[in-house]
């Protein structure tokens, strides 16, 4: 992040390299119930990102040492497919996927009513099929829809979204070039109905004013993505009590 | 909330969605109270009955209740008890004292091993969600034959029908024994044709049991039943 000052990320007309305005999001689509074997599942495309999430459980937590007597454990496994980027990714867990799995689990634990299922486990598998910056946010969005599809009780549908800074300008929803050569990245997990933040990371530097503007963009985008998520769930089940 | 009451149109809600103001109403299952508003916690149909607002979930895990008749699978065997997979968030425990046989300490494996399927009843569920099962009771036994089909928990009432009418119809038409476990497992025991037909009929009931066309669809399927209309 930073240190690539000679890379031009904003065009002379003020638009970004892909033609978006600075507060414009990449196109998002959500589909619920894509995997018949899972208790709940979802596929989210966000720009060129494609994420599939599957939820299994709640089930008996094994090994027993991971059980919590007062609540369920959320076991998240985030993984990028070897073919998800132009450079092949070595299959299996790595430092980055462990970190993202951990922060995603913590974000989901704050919205899922885990106290309803003591001693059990809810397994969330997030597979990134195509990556173009912001995969952790797309993964969280997909996991939220999959959890709702599985009938897991939650306080809200958490939405993952990111803003950042390129060429001293705060922009919404960084693409690959902006993520690689920009100055800051601010991914957050937002609960749109209550306005709470369940997850926040920051890479790079933002002034307080820039931070506030980035959060303003994030909240605006979270509202739009939330509507798409709700539409996807309604589309799957509406048209008769199923 | 004006809908979901006394047969009015139900409203599909998603987690976090406001159902309506509390205003003297009680909060039922699938919903929570937050800042004077009733919020849905599950994906399902919001309804109001007897001044209680609740959400009927579209999908849900089986939550065991005392007295439930279930189809369980042996998951672990110890010297004096069996841990049973009950298709829920918690395993059930079947102590040797509640088995239908006289079991010596250390001889549990001789009666049932991992993977064996039983028809059991939930004896007790405590506040820590410890589930105790019993096989002492009429009809409770190890299931040595037949096949087990899984159905979503919220489709069980649909499969049973009014006063068990639908399942009885399937039993008669398939000429098979069919037992519906409260935990979403259905045991079918009949010949190959009957079992295959029963599977098809269960799938139809799941897909169309709530539709007005269900009766006609089931009647059409009954034309291909192994034993038509013979009770």
General description of the model:
The complex is a heterodimer of chains A (242) and B (231). Chain A is α+β, with helices and mostly antiparallel strands and 242 residues long. Chain A has one domain (28-237): Ribosomal Protein S5, domain 2. Helices cover 27% and strands 29% of the residues of chain A. Chain A contains 4 helices and 10 strands. Chain A has a 5-stranded mixed beta sheet with strand order 1-2-3-5-4. In chain A, strands 6, 7, 8, 9 and 10 form a 5-stranded antiparallel beta sheet that branches. In chain A, helix 1 (95-109) crosses helix 2 (135-149) and helix 2 packs parallel to helix 4. The longest helix of chain A is centred in the last third of the chain and has 30 residues, at 208-237. Chain A is globular. Chain A starts with 27 loop residues before the first strand and ends in a 5-residue tail after the last helix. Chain B folds into 3 domains: 11-57, RNA polymerase II/Efflux pump adaptor protein, barrel-sandwich hybrid domain (OB fold (Dihydrolipoamide Acetyltransferase, E2P)); 69-143, Beta Barrel (OB fold (Dihydrolipoamide Acetyltransferase, E2P)), CATH 2.40.50.140; 147-222, K Homology domain, type 1 (Ribosomal Protein S8, Chain: A, domain 1, 2-Layer Sandwich), CATH 3.30.1370. The longest helix of chain B has 17 residues, at 192-208. The N and C termini of chain B lie far apart (46 Å). The A-B interface holds A 39-40, 57-60, 69, 72, 111, 113, 117-120, 148-157, 191-194, 229-230, 233-234, 237-238, 240-242 and B 10, 12, 14-18, 30, 32, 34, 39, 41-45, 56-61, 75, 85, 88-91, 128-129, 210-211.
